[in-house]
C-alpha cells in the first residue's frame, strides 16, 4: 500500500501515514498475511486505544490518538510598536499568538506581510532588524527610475555596485521614524550611513 492508498482508507496525513508505513514494513517482516493488511490497518483506525499495548501496532495507534488542534482560549500576549502598519501584518501577528506554541510576541515598526508570521513580527524580547518596506517589489519597479535613484545616491556620496529598483531607499520606511517608535526596546550606540552598496543585481531573484 502506498500513501494514497492509506489516505483513502482513512489514515490521516502526517505522522499517522509515516507510522502506517512503518507498521506495514514490520507486518511484512513478521510474516503477517499481506492479504489482510488493509483490514489490519482499518481495525487500528477504528479503535486505536485497543492497540496501545501491542508492540507492533502501538506507534500507529498512538499517532491516531493524538488530540486534534485546539486554538487556545486566550492568545499569547503581544505588543505593537509604531503605527500605520499593514492591517494584514497585524492580523498575522494576532493569528500567530493564537497558536498553542506561542509564548509572547512583538510587532515591530518595520513589520509587513510575510509567510505565516509577518516580517518584523518576533517572539519575546527583540527589535526591528531594518526599516521595513512601504511597497511591494512590483510596485517599486513601477514607481522608480534609475536616473532618479542614481541622482539621489550621488547627492549622498553613495557608490552603487549592483542592486535592483525593488531595493532602492524609497521602498523602505524612514529609519529615524522606525527607531523613534522603539526607544523602549533599544539603546542606540551609533549610526552607520553606507557609502558602498552591493546587493542582488537587477533582474535576479531576491534573497527573500
Question: What's a quick, concise take on this entry?
Answer:
The chain is of the alpha/beta class. Helices cover 35% and strands 11% of the residues.
Description:
The chain has 208 residues and is an alpha/beta fold. The protein folds into 2 domains: 3-65, no CATH class; 78-198, no CATH class. 35% of the residues lie in helices and 11% in strands. The strands form 2 sheets. It has a 3-stranded mixed sheet, with helices on one face. The protein has a two-stranded parallel sheet with strand order 4-5.
Oligomeric state of shown chains: single chain
Q: What is the makeup of the main sheet? A: 3 strands, mixed
Uncertain runs: none
Strands in their spatial order, largest beta sheet: 1-2-3
Name the beta content range: 5-15%
Overall pLDDT score: 85
Q: Any idea what the shape is?
A: elongated
The sequence of SSEs as H and E is HHHHEHEEHHEHE
Topology, number of strands: 5
Q: How many angstroms separate the termini?
A: 39 Å
Helical content class: 25-40%
> Number of helix segments?
8
Task: Provide the structure class.
Answer: alpha/beta
Rounded to an integer in angstroms, the radius of gyration calculated over CA atoms is 27 Å
Secondary-structure blueprint:
Elements: H1 3-8, H2 15-29, H3 37-46, H4 58-65, E1 78-80, H5 87-96, E2 105-112, E3 119-123, H6 137-143, H7 146-155, E4 159-162, H8 175-180, E5 196-198
Parallel strand pairs: 1-2, 4-5
Antiparallel strand pairs: 2-3
Helix pairs in contact: 2-4
Index terms:
single chain; 208 residues; alpha/beta; 2 domains; three-stranded mixed sheet; two-stranded parallel ribbon; 8 helices; 5 strands
Amino acid at each position: 500500500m502506498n500513501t494514497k492508498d492509506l489516505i483513502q482508507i482513512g489514515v490521516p496525513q502526517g505522522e499517522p501515514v509515516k507510522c502506517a508505513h512503518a507498521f506495514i514494513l514490520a507486518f511484512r517482516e513478521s510474516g503477517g498475511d499481506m492479504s489482510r493488511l488493509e483490514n489490519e490497518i482499518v481495525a487500528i483506525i477504528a479503535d486505536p486505544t485497543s492497540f496501545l499495548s501491542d508492540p507492533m501496532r502501538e506507534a500507529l495507534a498512538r499517532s491516531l490518538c493524538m488530540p486534534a488542534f485546539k486554538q487556545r482560549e486566550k492568545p499569547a500576549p503581544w505588543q505593537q510598536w509604531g503605527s500605520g502598519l499593514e492591517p494584514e501584518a497585524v492580523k498575522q501577528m494576532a493569528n500567530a499568538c493564537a497558536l498553542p506554541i506561542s509564548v509572547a510576541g512583538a510587532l515591530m515598526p518595520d513589520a509587513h506581510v510575510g509567510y505565516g508570521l509577518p516580517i518584523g513580527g518576533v517572539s519575546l524580547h527583540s527589535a526591528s532588524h531594518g526599516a521595513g518596506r512601504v511597497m511591494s517589489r512590483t510596485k517599486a519597479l513601477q514607481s522608480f527610475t534609475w536616473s532618479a535613484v542614481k541622482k539621489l545616491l550621488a547627492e549622498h556620496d553613495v557608490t552603487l555596485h549592483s542592486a535592483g529598483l525593488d531595493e532602492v531607499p524609497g521602498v523602505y520606511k524612514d529609519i529615524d521614524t522606525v527607531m523613534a517608535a522603539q526607544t523602549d526596546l533599544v539603546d542606540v550606540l551609533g549610526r552607520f550611513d553606507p557609502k558602498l552598496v552591493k546587493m542582488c543585481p537587477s533582474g535576479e531573484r531576491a534573497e527573500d
